[in-house]
Amino acid sequence: MFVCMENVEISSRIHELREKMIESGKQNGFLNSETIKYSQELDKLIYRQQTVKKVSYGSQTKSRLPRSSPNR
C-alpha cells in the first residue's frame, strides 16, 4: 500500500514539474538554467518512479511464484 501511495505522489509531482519545465522553456528558452533545473529534477523523479514500480512489481511477482518442491 505504501509503495502505491508513494507512486501516486511521485506521478503528481512529475506532472507538476513537467508543466513548469515546459512553461519555463517557452518563456526563457530550453537552455535556460531554470528550465534545465526543472528537467534535472524531473529526471530524478522519473527514475525514482521507475524504481518504485520495479520494487512493487517484484514483490507482487515473488508472492505469485509457485514454491519449488524439494528434490527427492
Describe the structure.
The chain has 72 residues and is mainly alpha-helical. It contains two helices and no strands. The longest helix is centred in the last third of the chain and has 32 residues. Helix 1 runs antiparallel to helix 2. It has one domain: MYOD Basic-Helix-Loop-Helix Domain, subunit B.
Task: Explain briefly what this protein structure is.
The chain has 72 residues and is mainly α. The chain has helices spanning 2-28, 33-64.
What distance lies between the first and last C-alpha atoms, to the nearest angstrom?
39 Å
Strand runs, count: 0
Enter the CATH topology name. MYOD Basic-Helix-Loop-Helix Domain, subunit B
Order of helices and strands: HH
User: In terms of structural class, how would the helical and strand content be classed?
Assistant: mainly alpha
Corresponding CATH architecture:
Irregular
| Strand content bin | under 5%
Write down the CATH class: Few Secondary Structures
| Largest beta-sheet characterization | none
Low-confidence stretches: none
Radius of gyration: 19 Å
In helices, the fraction of residues equals: over 70%
Mean pLDDT: 83
Q: What sort of overall outline do the alpha carbons produce when their principal axes are compared?
A: elongated
Number of helices: 2
Our count of domains comes out at: 1
